[in-house]
Amino acid sequence: MKPEIFADTVLVWLGPVPLTRTVASSVVVSALLVLLGASLARAVRRHPEGRAAAAGRLAFGFIHDLVEQAAGRPWPALEVFAGTLFLFIATAAVVGQLPGVPAPTANLPASAALAALVFGAVPLAGIRARGVGGYLAHYLKPNPILFPLHVISELSRTLALALRLFGNMMSGHLVVALIVALVGFFVPVPLMALDLLIGLLQAYIFTILTAVYVGAAARVGEQS
Amino acid sequence: MSEHTLLALASIIIAGLTMALGALGAALGESRIGAASMDALARQPDEASSITRNQFVALAMVESTAIFCLVIALVLLFANPFMEG
Q: How many domains, chain A?
């Protein structure tokens, strides 16, 4: 038996472009989120006292507080970015519990793409807050000798983000598959509950780390 | 023993060692986090929500070292670049 850990099944070939299971499930998750967000926004506008509006406001307040605590100040653009990441990863973890549907994040290229988004957002936020010169100058502080260390830390934390998400999401499914193969059905149910908890926790951690990294890049100037 | 068997043997043994040592380090680190957060909870029960949240974040950060080891062990077993076919 060779489990599919690093590979990805191709469902259909759309001309020269392969449509893999990961692509399909992430498109479905994104579509679900867009629909949910649109309906919640309409609920907030039409029935501000209703339950759906309260749920939407609670979710927004959660992300708002999270970003404000991690980045040190309210920051709407970062709320949108980090909130999107949180909702996507959390929904992916929930969807991944359905039988036969892989979590989009249980695939190394997909989680690496999310980490690459964070990697790109850090200099963007730094340049917007401090200007190109001000952002680049922080690489040479406190001493130009530390320049390689700054570069290595940015690269390694991106790698760690990608591998942490991928490993956590993939290992849960692998453990469940192993237990089903060894013991039988219904035994791994507690492990699946743990897997669900870990998936939501990883979404939270990914979001907090994103807010901390981006917030630190924008705060570079305030310290000096 | 052919070269392929030797390579497979070494990969399996190293994968087990990787997982054992990685889990050992993560277990030690997580036990310290657990003990420290229990201590903090006993001293400051009012800050329970904040302590629990930070504890979970710290646990997951430490846990990720074990997860890195798991990924490396799985690469050795299922996607070993030196064992084609």
A: 1
Q: Is the confidence at residue A215, as pLDDT, over 90?
A: no
Closest to A130 measured CA to CA, from A25, A220, A62: A220
Residue A1 belongs to a domain:
no
Question: Which domains occur in chain B, in start order?
Answer: 3-78 (1.20.20.10)
The 10s digit of each residue's pLDDT in A82-107 is: 999 999 999 999 998 887 787 888 88
Contacts for A173 with CB less than 8 Å, ≥ 6 apart: A96, A102, A103, A106, A195
Tell me which chain A residues have a C-beta less than 8 angstroms from the C-beta of B63.
168
Mean pLDDT of B8-35: 94
- When CB atoms are compared, the residue of A163, A166, A201 closest to B56 is A201
Name the residue range of residue A214's domain: 10-223
